[in-house]
């Protein structure tokens, strides 16, 4: 019986040793698994970080290209606008040259003994020619007469004066300077005297 007990104790010791060894191996495997998982997570994190960096760089490149294209577009349109204004002025000046030519002809034909009526008729023709050129480019005089209602969209009141008649109060009493529109936009308000209320 003593032998049996010793054998059992040896067996138990061997089993405990095997269990301890298995526990150590399991612990090592767990550590290795954790290390492998940590390494995998680190690799995944590095890989994810690289992807994000590449994506950020791609967006940055796109932004720079778009910004550059927009700046080129802005410069090009500014240049085109400037050229358009210059060419519009060129057309107007070319048309006004005919008026200048008429003044030159009138001055060349002016004689001291000419009567005032002939001079007046000549200047009247030149003035009509000048107005026609301006109207061709969209200039229109604002029709403002004495007795019209005062309109802040077309008139600039330079002063108010007391008026003798009640119905002239708040109305245009006198037109000091004509107003003008260029293609439906008022470019100069008519300067008027308004009847005081």
UniProtKB/TrEMBL annotation:
InterPro entries: GrpE, GrpE_CC, GrpE_head. This is Protein GrpE. Residues 22-47 have a biased composition (Acidic residues). It is found in: Cytoplasm. Homodimer. Its main location: cytoplasm. It comes from Persicobacter diffluens. The keyword Cell membrane does not apply. GO terms for molecular function: adenyl-nucleotide exchange factor activity; protein homodimerization activity; protein-folding chaperone binding; unfolded protein binding. HAMAP family: GrpE. One of its GO terms (cellular component) is cytoplasm.
């Amino acid at each position: 019986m003593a032998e049996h007990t010793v054998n059992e104790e040896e067996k138990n010791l061997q089993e405990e040793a095997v269990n301890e060894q298995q526990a150590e191996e399991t612990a090592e495997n767990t550590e290795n698994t954790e290390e492998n998982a940590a390494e995998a997570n680190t690799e995944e994190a590095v890989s994810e970080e690289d992807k994000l960096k590449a994506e950020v760089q791609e967006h940055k490149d796109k932004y720079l290209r778009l910004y550059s294209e927009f700046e080129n577009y802005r410069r090009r349109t500014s240049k085109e606008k400037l050229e358009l204004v210059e060419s519009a002025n060129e057309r107007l000046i070319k048309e006004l040259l005919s008026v200048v030519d008429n003044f030159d002809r009138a001055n060349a034909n002016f004689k001291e003994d000419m009567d005032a009526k002939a001079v007046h008729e000549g200047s009247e023709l030149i003035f009509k020619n000048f107005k026609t050129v301006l109207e061709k480019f969209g200039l229109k005089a604002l029709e403002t007469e004495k007795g019209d209602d005062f309109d802040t969209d077309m008139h600039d009141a330079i002063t108010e004066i007391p008026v003798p008649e009640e119905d002239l109060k708040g109305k245009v009493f006198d037109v000091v300077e004509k107003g003008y529109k260029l293609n439906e936009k008022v470019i100069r308000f008519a300067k008027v005297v308004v009847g005081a209320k």
